[in-house]
Design brief:
The protein is mainly beta. Helices cover 4% and strands 47% of the residues.
């Protein structure tokens, strides 16, 4: 498995979770990396991305609440999720942007519920 996402779980509305993704060097070093979310019954969508030079972009629904970061030395990508909402629920995956099919891992489940 090339990309392993972890850190999901049950989060309270208004609470926080931090996701981590361990990447192999072949995909990490020169690529923009992204976090993708797949809600039940929906397609997998890009939530946030970060370039090798640390420029970030976010989908409108998470702007101001989520923070994507990366540690180039450790080949890790993170997603700090704050002010959680029920609509943040889904399986979160990391991959390059654009995503490479062979690098999809198992994802990590995030459930936001009281």
């Amino acid at each position: 498995v090339q990309l392993q996402a972890s850190g999901g779980g049950l989060g309270q509305p208004g609470g926080s979770l931090r996701l981590s993704c361990a990447a192999s060097e072949s995909i990490f070093t020169f690529n923009t990396m992204g976090w993708f979310r797949q809600a039940p019954g929906e397609q997998r969508d890009l939530v946030a991305s970060i370039t090798p030079s640390l420029s970030t972009k976010y989908t409108d629904s998470v702007k101001g609440r989520f923070i994507i970061s990366r540690d180039n030395a450790k080949k890790m990508v993170y997603l700090q999720m704050n002010s959680l909402k029920p609509e943040d629920t889904g399986v979160y995956y990391c991959n390059s942007k654009p995503p490479l099919p062979r690098y999809w891992g198992q994802g990590t489940q995030v459930t936001v519920s009281s």
